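Researcher: Go.
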Amino acid sequence: MEQLALLHITRTDSVYRFRLEPPVGPVSGPLESSVELTTEQQERLRRALQSASQYMQSSDSKGQARRSGSSDALVSLGRFLFDTLLSSVIQESLRQLDTPLLLNTNTPDIPWELLYDSKPAPGHFLCQHMSIGRQANSQSSQTQRLFQVERLSPETSLHKSRKPGRRETQGLTVLFLVNPTSECPIAEEEVATLCTTLPEAISRIILYRQQANQLEMRLRFNADMPQVLHYAGPIPAATSTGEPTLALAGHTRLDTNAATQLFSSLPKRPLVVLSYYDGSQVGALPPYEIEALAASNLMAAGASAVLAMRWPVNAQRAREFTILFYQETADGVSLGEALRRARSTMAQRHPGDLSWLSYVLYGDPTGSLVASSPGGRDRNLELSLDALDDDHLMQPMFSSSNALDRRFLQEVLGLALMEARRMHKDYLGTPHLFIALTKLDGGCTQDALRSLNFSPKQVRDVIRLALGNGKATSDTPILPTRRCKEILQTAERNALNAGSTSIDERAIAQAVLSEKDGVTHELLTKMGINPSQLIETILLSNARALLELVVDRREHGRDRDRADGPVADLLHGPAHLVRVERRDLAAEFGDRDDVNVEVARDERHRTLTTSKRPGDERRLVATFA
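Model: Structure:
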């Protein structure tokens, strides 16, 4: 087992006591020091904490990078904690420490992970330099000793209560609890986008809204044995006894007793990831003491660790950070090291953004969720996060005079386009459309395949193997086949015949699978899947993809496909492929006086340029036959 150093920090009034225990045992003995802050120093610390919190909460919802100069608030806080509170002996010991570090402190309001050492060039935060975790203090001495007992002996009461003979899954599996109270619709959008971005090697189970209840969780825990429980819902609510609990569907809750029963069915202690939302706002957080107590109770119930946020994080940055963390974890990297690598990558990608400092790991930083690294083989095949934004989704490839909503179809076409890119194809065919349908988490296609005892991922892999890889590069245009266009038109007719207001998953799946002389039909038949039976099962399924729910709500009241004037001329022309390079601002700001829309046309290209303000120009480029 990997060695671990312990740093105990205890505050009593204005006195701070530090005790650093080396990982190798009492060779030189623990290092101890204490400092009493003057009234002036206490006020300086209070102002530093306040400035850092204000800075981290100042990010806007549009994801614009913070001004790098404002990060001085975080550096100032980190330097004060390191230079003023730590003795020179402990400072030097931390510089020489080459093992993970566990913090044990009764000061949940102080981000000790931000200890900033300015002596090296350049200086760095403690969490940048080493793998670090925090042991949440609670009023229960049993909870305080839980971590040490587990590391010393595997024969804990929790391990004894686990069912014998259960085999651990090889890859990483994440169970998402999404918007259980139906009060946080933004949580659904974030998880839907996150799930379409994660590598396929990371299995995903989604329980949203009324599905996020204890019964469904118990069934999923027993069947799929997830290593991660990702909660995306409202902030914890305190009971009459002061215990913070996580809300579930049906006015139920995930308290300590319920969590203990659920976690005991797993062969290994799970990681709990907490993403809080307050209505439509992202990043609402409980007080530090409540969050620390919630983490402590979850670990007492059987969680190996809890990953939470100290400050709100922009939705796009949070999604990017979570993907990096899950990728590292799926490769078998320890939790603390995975967190450190994710921080390092984010710091390199976005030098002016320090949102990665918000994440706090409660629990053992040396623990790993999987032993193998299936995710590493698949990671290089995945597109970068920037390629998965709404800005890069394809627009409809056919004109129409009806009033059907095509936003969900655009999302499916975007997934199909990414699949064609992944396979290095220069065309978009019906197999790519079907693969896109199998990637819709929680959707009726996945539900139907599983009811027929087929794994959606295995079906995708067989189709990919049969099609093989092409020779197209990332710059090669991808053109839809004639049959693909016909399938999309059939999907439109299916939606109209069903009385639907949008081209939904059922309409698309029915169109793809009804093509009896097509490649998809032939491949499914060879796999032992009856396409006609699959269609029937899909139509009878009550499942609905989380992404479809998100699209129904996203940009409510706006319809890009039915825009008037030059935008409609672009989208409804005889295009073989439309590729959005940035966002189509015309649909979003076309009725505003501060937006100028200009269209330049020639024989093969039409370019729409919109400018909200000088220097913020974005283009939509369409290529025509």
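Model: The longest strand covers residues 5-12.
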